[in-house]
């Protein structure tokens, strides 16, 4: 079976490390995946759980990625693993990334900038950083890139 698009909504669940590992295993089998959408809002997903999933995303031929981390336990380490994985996706043309209500800090700004600068095919980018622990300066560094829509 060839899977081209995958949408997962695990928001408001009690998903744990084993559940995220299972998602990573599913992604490993989706070698033709072009679009991936995952809602994780209001879960206990943290850095360890998301790093397994991020590692799988980095090797897929994705063109569109939408990740919603609202009200999760994702900290800078997990956010950086996701951003680093997204940087490795060569064909990425559309990205929606939401860290709303997550305790991420300015440490992720430089990783965002590097990712956005490295992608040649990236045409549409939406990044939400509302209610994070980032300063206005950290958000401003990201905002300066023309293709980025943001909210703070």
Write up what this structure looks like.
With 152 residues, this protein is an alpha/beta fold. It is 36% helix and 18% strand. The chain is built from 5 helices and 6 strands, in the order E-H-E-H-E-H-E-H-E-H-E. It has a 6-stranded parallel β-sheet, with no helix packed on it. Strand 5 (124-128), helix 5 (136-143) and strand 6 (148-149) form a beta-alpha-beta unit.
Quick synopsis:
The protein is of the alpha/beta class and 152 residues long. The protein contains 5 helices and 6 strands.
Strand content: 15-25%
**H/E series:** EHEHEHEHEHE
Going across the biggest sheet, name each strand in turn.
1-2-3-4-5-6
Helix fraction? 25-40%
pLDDT under 50 segments (min length 5)? 147-152
Q: Strand tally, please?
A: 6
Number of helices: 5
The overall pLDDT, averaged over residues, is 90
Major beta sheet, specifics?
6 strands, parallel
Note the main attributes of this structure.
152 residues; single chain; 5 helices; alpha/beta; 6-stranded parallel beta sheet
Helix and strand topology:
Elements: E1 5-9, H1 17-29, E2 35-39, H2 47-57, E3 64-68, H3 76-87, E4 94-98, H4 109-118, E5 124-128, H5 136-143, E6 148-149
Parallel strand pairs: 1-2, 2-3, 3-4, 4-5, 5-6
Helix pairs in contact: 1-2, 2-3, 3-4, 4-5
């Amino acid at each position: 079976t060839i899977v081209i698009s995958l949408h997962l909504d695990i928001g408001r669940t009690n998903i744990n490390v084993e559940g995220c590992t299972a998602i990573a295993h599913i992604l490993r089998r989706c070698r033709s995946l072009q679009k991936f959408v995952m809602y994780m809002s209001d879960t206990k997903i943290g850095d360890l759980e998301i790093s397994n999933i991020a590692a799988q995303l980095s090797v897929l031929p994705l063109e569109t990625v939408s990740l919603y981390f609202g009200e999760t336990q994702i900290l800078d380490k997990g956010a950086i693993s996701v951003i680093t994985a997204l940087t490795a996706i060569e064909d990425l043309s559309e990205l929606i990334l939401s860290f709303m209500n997550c305790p991420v800090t300015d440490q992720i700004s430089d990783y965002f900038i590097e990712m956005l600068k490295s992608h040649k095919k990236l045409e549409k980018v939406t990044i939400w950083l509302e209610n994070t622990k980032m300063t206005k300066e950290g958000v401003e560094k990201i905002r300066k890139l023309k293709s980025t829509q943001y909210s703070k």
